[in-house]
């Protein structure tokens, strides 16, 4: 994300640095966050592959994460959570939205952010790019391109320079060696004074009190991402390293802000409680998809082992005994 200049302090979410605990958390386990909404699978005009009960797209080398109803729900939850965290703002970069002319959304997925920005700022042109096919946009000043963002950008008119580049949740979508060239290509296609904003979840579990479970499953799975990165090549640690890489690519005034994401509604603070509900849903709708392909194709696990790990992690959350959080 885009944080304050070096040396300037930013309070995370304008909330206490320690997350207050709701003492009633754990006394009730009948909350249901599933509203029964149906999510349609995107256009299948390109090739897809079924694998272990999940749908993957086949564009070029494909993607280690599935592209199906559950993954789309996961993306929608993340989108709504970010709007909630940012008080219904689409970006934190210090730019005037009404002055934007050209905006680029890399790894746009369903295009929720792209279309949202295009709808809110009708005078700017928004281009969303992803390696998965996307339905035609319904907003006239928004368009989508099917492309691999790590290759030379043929989707950009040479005369077009972007005022804002947005990247969200591309962890494990790229290899480590792809990130620095991508940032350099972003810089080469941006206006002077433009901003790049990237939002990623750090794959590390935190706990500030004595509710941490020794040898807990959430922590084990987070630690496993190091092995997943080394065996498959998908880089999970971009959140911890993106600011350094941006500087190495030539960006100046690089800022970083961190937000706490409780796993569950255990906080007594109303805003943290809502964020916790969003993030629990995000984690539960995403976990199997983050693990399945890499564990079975690169690490020798069976699908049953993946599902068992997910069930253990969910049981750990559902016990309502642990005050875990991740950082954005």
Automatic annotation (TrEMBL):
SUPFAM superfamilies: S-adenosyl-L-methionine-dependent methyltransferases. Residues 1-21 are annotated as: Disordered. GO terms for molecular function: methyltransferase activity. It holds the Pfam family Methyltransf_23. Signal peptide: none annotated. This is Methyltransferase domain-containing protein. It comes from Cyphellophora europaea (strain CBS 101466).
């Amino acid at each position: 994300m885009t944080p304050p200049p070096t040396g300037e302090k930013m309070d995370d979410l304008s909330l206490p640095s320690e997350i207050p605990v709701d003492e009633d958390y754990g006394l009730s386990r009948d909350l249901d966050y599933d509203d029964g909404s149906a999510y349609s699978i995107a256009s299948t005009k390109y090739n897809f592959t079924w694998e272990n009960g999940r749908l993957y797209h086949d564009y070029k080398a494909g993607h280690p994460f599935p592209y199906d109803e559950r993954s789309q729900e996961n993306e929608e939850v993340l989108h709504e959570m970010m709007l909630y965290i940012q008080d219904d703002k689409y970006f934190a970069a210090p730019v005037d939205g009404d002055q934007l002319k050209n905006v680029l959304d890399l790894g746009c997925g369903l295009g929720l952010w792209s279309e949202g920005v295009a709808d809110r700022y009708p005078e700017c042109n928004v281009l969303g790019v992803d390696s998965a096919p996307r339905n035609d946009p319904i907003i006239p000043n928004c368009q989508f391109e099917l492309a691999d963002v790590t290759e030379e950008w043929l989707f950009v008119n040479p005369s077009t320079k972007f005022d804002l580049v947005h990247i969200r949740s591309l962890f494990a979508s790229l290899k480590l060696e792809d990130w620095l060239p991508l940032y350099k290509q972003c810089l080469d296609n941006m206006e002077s004074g433009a901003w790049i904003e990237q939002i990623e979840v750090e794959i590390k579990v935190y706990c500030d009190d004595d509710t941490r479970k020794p040898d807990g499953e959430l922590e084990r799975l987070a630690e496993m991402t190091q092995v997943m990165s080394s065996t498959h090549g998908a880089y999970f640690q971009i959140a911890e390293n993106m600011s350094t890489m941006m500087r190495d690519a030539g960006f100046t005034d690089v800022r970083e802000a961190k937000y706490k994401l409780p796993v569950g509604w255990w906080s007594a603070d109303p805003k943290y409680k809502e964020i916790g509900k969003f993030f629990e849903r995000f984690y539960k709708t995403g976990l199997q998809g983050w693990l399945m392909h890499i564990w079975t194709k690169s690490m020798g696990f069976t699908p049953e082992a993946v599902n068992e790990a997910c069930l253990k992690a969910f049981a750990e959350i559902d016990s309502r005994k642990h005050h875990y959080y991740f950082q954005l």
